[in-house]
Design brief:
Layout lengths: L4 E12 L38 H13 L3 E2 L2 E2 L2 E4 L9 E4 L6 E2 L2 E6 L2 E14 L3 E4 L10 E4 L6 E7 L6 H18 L11 E11 L9 E6 L2 H20 L7 E6 L4 E7 L9 E2 L6 E2 L2 H9 L5 H10 L5 H7 L3 H13 L3 H18 L11 H12 L5 H14 L3 H7 L8 H14 L1 H8 L5 H12 L6 H12 L1
Parallel strand pairs: 13-14
Antiparallel strand pairs: 1-11, 1-12, 2-6, 3-17, 4-5, 4-16, 6-8, 7-8, 8-11, 9-10, 12-13, 14-15
Helix pairs in contact: 2-3, 5-6, 6-8, 7-8, 7-9, 9-10, 12-14, 12-15, 13-14, 14-15
The structure holds adenosine-5'-diphosphate, zinc ion and magnesium ion (MG).
Length: 481
């Protein structure tokens, strides 16, 4: 039998800060826009233009650090990371290398019902690079490349984990949980599709039980949670095959090819001294007052893990349901507001997870974009509970609320969907169904009790789902027993 290998994974996550302007100049931070319309002499790297640090970017980094249990470092500084590539017009990136703003930290995740703490190494502030568009497949094989510096100079935090993750699934769950925490803090949109959340994955294998780490590769270009998991699964297999054949892993940066489902070598890994890091002489150090840090801490909202625990312990939701409801702040707030008006947490959670999320997904919408309010959902649920409408009709009304934003009462009235609870009205339909289905009546009276369900169904069909099912049941039994 061969050696069992254990994956060792550490992530480097870039989060684009949702500040109004870039981190060192006054250019607006907006996704998209005409190429090179959000630029100035500083973010174009023109000689003589000087940086001015955006205070909100510092506040956001501290806010994220507090939410992730980091130690906030009272004195940090900016360093120049030199590299020559046209997405960086000054040929250096302003980053933090020697003294960064947040140290340590951790985030708890839950994998297959088990809780696990993933340690962070640090969080540092830096500026983003611009975007290149090559005429060919890469810069070296292109006739020309187009450079758009709109994104250049945007404020980022880079979150670096310790190599604590042990599977592709764990890495995906960690990134989802991290996304939720950052979303709750409000410092970023954290959208992988738009690039405001980006993740590089470092991965190595080692013989199970070993305390040493193997040589790692770094995977870039993962654009979704699913592709992070797929890319890591692929890379684990690739490395396993090499090691099993007695080969060695080359330390390198590899690119994930989503279409082909493989990673390919991009470049052998550079060392820190290749970057010639040195303190940026144009920027003063960041000195943080403890009072300011406490002010920021005081404004943190209830975070996903705490909220999840509350929903399980106090409201009786399952861990799974609580995990989904707290997966986004907007959904969790919608839930809280609805429960405050209609105090049946499990019913509300079900409606959100089954009806609401599937409509949102089908329409490719975020909950914030929906027209439905917690008030409207709670009054729909009240109407159902009071028997004014059936469960089936409630779903129809909900879909209509989703499409139009109208109040449920209005839709029920407009479409004449009120549940029929009038015995006289139902009696004649019951008669009709009985005489139209002699076989089922015979079955029922001959002891096949589930034939009643069929007859109830026929009455529901006749009334387009509006009959009160309890009452139909009672009327049928009275006639047949
Ligand atoms: P580098 O010097 O190559 O940048 P770092 O030590 O700064 O490496 O770590 C970068 C990331 O790689 C971190 O997230 C860390 O947890 C992870 N990492 C470090 N060593 C390994 C390893 N042997 N296998 C997997 N991940 C690792
Ligand atoms: Zn600028
Ligand atoms: Mg490093």
């Amino acid at each position: 039998m061969g050696v069992e290998f254990e994956p060792v994974i550490g992530l480097e996550i870039h989060v684009e800060l949702k500040t109004k302007t870039k981190i060192f100049c006054g250019c607006p931070m907006e996704f998209g826009g005409e190429p090179n319309s959000h630029v100035c002499p500083f973010c174009l790297g023109l000689p003589g233009a000087l940086p001015v640090l955006n205070k909100q970017a510092v506040e956001y980094a501290v806010r994220a650090g507090l939410a992730l249990n980091c130690e906030i470092v009272p004195y940090s500084r900016f360093d120049r990371k030199s590299y020559f590539y046209p997405d960086l017009p000054s040929a250096y990136q302003i980053s933090q290398f020697y003294f960064y703003i947040c140290k340590g930290g951790h985030l708890e995740i839950e994998v297959n019902g088990e809780k696990k703490k993933i340690r962070l190494n640090r969080i540092h502030l830096e500026e983003d690079a611009g975007k290149l568009l090559h005429s060919g497949s890469s810069i070296t094989t292109s006739q020309y490349s187009l450079a758009d510096y709109n994104r250049g100079g945007s404020g980022l935090i880079e979150i670096v984990t310790e190599p604590d993750l042990r599977s592709a699934e764990e890495a995906r769950i960690f990134l989802e949980q991290l996304r939720a925490v950052i979303e709750y803090t409000g410092v970023s949109d954290v959208k992988m599709e738009e690039g405001s959340l980006r993740c590089d994955a470092n991965i190595s294998l080692r013989p199970a039980g070993s305390s040493q780490f193997g040589t790692k590769t770094e995977i870039k270009n993962v654009n979704s949670f699913k592709s992070l998991e797929r890319a890591l699964e692929y890379e684990i297999e690739r490395q396993r095959e090499i090691l099993e054949d007695g080969g060695v892993i080359i330390q390198e940066t590899r690119g994930w090819d989503e279409g082909k489902g493989i990673t390919t070598s991009m470049r052998t890994k550079e060392e820190a001294n290749d970057y010639r890091y040195f303190p940026d002489p144009d920027l003063p150090p960041i000195v943080l007052e403890p009072e300011w840090i406490e002010e920021i801490r005081a404004t943190l909202p209830e975070l996903p893990n705490a909220k999840k625990e509350r929903l399980v312990k106090e409201l009786g939701l399952s861990t799974y349901d609580a995990g989904i409801i707290t997966g986004s702040r907007a959904l969790a707030e919608f839930f809280d507001e609805t429960v405050a008006l209609f105090n049946e947490p499990k019913t509300v959670a079900n409606w959100l997870m089954v009806e609401f999320l599937s409509l949102l997904n089908a329409n490719n919408m975020e909950i914030q974009e929906s027209k439905i309010t917690p008030q409207q959902l709670s009054s729909l649920l009240k109407s159902q509970k009071e028997g004014k409408i059936s469960g089936k009709i409630a779903k129809t009304v909900f879909a209509e609320m989703f499409a139009t934003g109208k109040d449920p009462e209005e839709i029920i009235k407009e479409k004449g969907l009120v549940q029929i609870s009038d015995e006289k009205a139902l009696a004649s339909i019951v008669e009709k169904v009985i005489s139209a289905n002699p076989k089922s009546v015979e079955d029922y009276q001959g002891g096949k009790k589930n034939a009643l369900g069929f007859l109830v169904g026929q009455v529901m069909k006749e009334t387009k789902g509006q009959a009160n099912p309890g009452l139909v049941n009672k009327l049928l039994r009275e006639k047949l027993d």
